[in-house]
UniProtKB/TrEMBL annotation:
It comes from the Bacteria. It holds the Pfam family YppF. It comes from Bacillus gaemokensis. This is YppF-like protein. InterPro entries: YppF (IPR025553).
Length: 64
């Protein structure tokens, strides 16, 4: 799957278009976890999205 294909799948699923690389990164991750893309396609997409500015979220440690 190429980035353009991912964007098209995003529009079909969500009903709107986005250029937000982080939103597309989350969408790609869900596609991978649902088995819609294989690991090699996922890795290529992640690399391309990160090259275009996507960042992985940093998780805050919650204190109880």
């Amino acid at each position: 799957m190429k980035l353009g294909d991912l964007k098209q799948a995003f529009v079909q699923k969500k009903g709107y278009s986005t250029e937000d690389m982080n939103e597309l990164l989350d969408f790609a991750r869900h596609h991978y976890l649902e088995g819609k893309i294989c690991i090699s396609e996922y890795r290529v997409l992640i690399r391309e999205l990160e090259t275009n500015g996507a960042t992985k979220p940093t998780h805050a440690i919650l204190e109880s």
